[in-house]
Structure formats: C-alpha cells, structure tokens
C-alpha cells in the first residue's frame, strides 16, 4: 500500500541574512555566513538552498511516496524548480541535487507562491522567533558544500 502524505512547509529568507523553514508548527533557521555571496551565489541561490533544506529534512525524516507542497515567496526559484533549470549555475546545482534526491524516495514537490505578508516564516525572518518549544530539534544535516555558507541558529 502506498501512503500519500500531504505536508505544507513555508520558507523565507532572513533579513539578517539567513534562512527560515517552518515544518507544520516546528521551525528552524540558519544564518548565512560571511562570504556566502559570490561565484554565482545570490539571493536566488539562498532561496533555492531553502528549498533544498526542506527536502533534506523530508529525506532525513524518512518521508517516502508522498506529495509535499512547499510555499515560498521567490517566483524565480519556484519557476526554475518547475522547469528543472535556471540560468545560474549554482541554482542548477541545487535543482540537480533536489531532483536526484527526491526521485529515489518517490517524493513529489509542489512549490507554491505565497506573498511575503502571508508567509508564516516572515515573523521569524524579522527576528520574532517562534516558541522555543517549537524549535526543530532535529534539523537537516547540511551537505558538505553548504557548511561553509550556513550556520544553524
């Protein structure tokens, strides 16, 4: 029997700068470390990494055979993911990793646009942190290539 799970996640880039992800009622955040921007890494790359972190968490938590809606406020990232490519090499690297990670786990990702003012992650991105009891205790393990750019908050 195949179980189809529907989950909704929201993503938001911090102004600090950093990344926030909300998994149902749990939240996690990472700061972007000095030197992250460059060599094609830009705000769009950071948004793509946010989507990558959400997928990492799904895989880490053994999600299989599921359909997941992920809300974000960056149309270019949503469009690039849906098309399977971007004009930016680091973005393409993230898209390639995401596709090669979700296929073996039979995870379908539906990215959906959400305006920033409706994004639950927006409060956290403005340093209005969620309840400590809802802090994600088991954040996704960062791939080696991201460790020099992100720091778990």
Give a nutshell description of this structure.
This protein is 35% helix and 25% strand.
- Weakly predicted, low-confidence segments: 1-7
Q: How many helices?
A: 5
CATH first level: which class? Alpha Beta
Task: Please provide the count of β strands.
Answer: 6
Kindly state the mean pLDDT as a whole number?
80
Strand order of the largest sheet: 5-4-1-2-3-6
Tell me the series of helices and strands, N- to C-terminal: EEEHEHHEHHE
Largest sheet: 6 strands, mixed
CATH homologous superfamily, by name? Ribonuclease H-like superfamily/Ribonuclease H
Distance between the termini: 39 Å
Task: Kindly give the count of domains.
Answer: 1
Output the CATH topology: Nucleotidyltransferase, domain 5
What structural class should be given to the helix and strand makeup? Answer: alpha/beta
What would you report as the Rg, rounded to the nearest angstrom? 14 Å
- Form type: globular
- The proportion of residues forming helix, as a percent range, comes to 25-40%
Give the percentage of residues in beta strands. Answer: 25-35%
Would you identify the CATH architecture? 2-Layer Sandwich
Describe the secondary-structure layout.
Blueprint: E1 6-14, E2 18-23, E3 26-32, H1 43-60, E4 66-72, H2 75-83, H3 89-105, E5 107-113, H4 121-125, H5 144-147, E6 150-152
Parallel strand pairs: 1-4, 4-5
Antiparallel strand pairs: 1-2, 2-3, 3-6
């Amino acid at each position: 029997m195949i179980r189809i799970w529907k989950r909704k996640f929201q993503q938001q880039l911090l102004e600090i700068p950093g990344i926030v992800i909300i998994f149902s009622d749990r939240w996690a955040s990472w700061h972007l470390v000095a030197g992250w921007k460059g060599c094609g890494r830009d705000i769009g790359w950071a948004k793509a990494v946010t989507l990558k972190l959400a997928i990492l968490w799904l895989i880490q938590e053994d999600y299989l055979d599921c359909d997941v809606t992920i809300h974000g406020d960056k149309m270019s990232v949503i469009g690039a993911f849906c098309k399977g490519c971007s004009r930016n090499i680091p973005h393409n690297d993230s898209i390639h990793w995401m596709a090669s990670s979700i296929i073996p786990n039979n995870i379908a990702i539906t990215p959906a646009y959400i305006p920033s003012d409706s994004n639950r992650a927006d409060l956290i991105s403005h340093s209005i942190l969620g309840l400590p009891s809802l802090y994600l205790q088991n954040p996704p393990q960062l791939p080696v290539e991201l460790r020099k750019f992100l720091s778990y908050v």
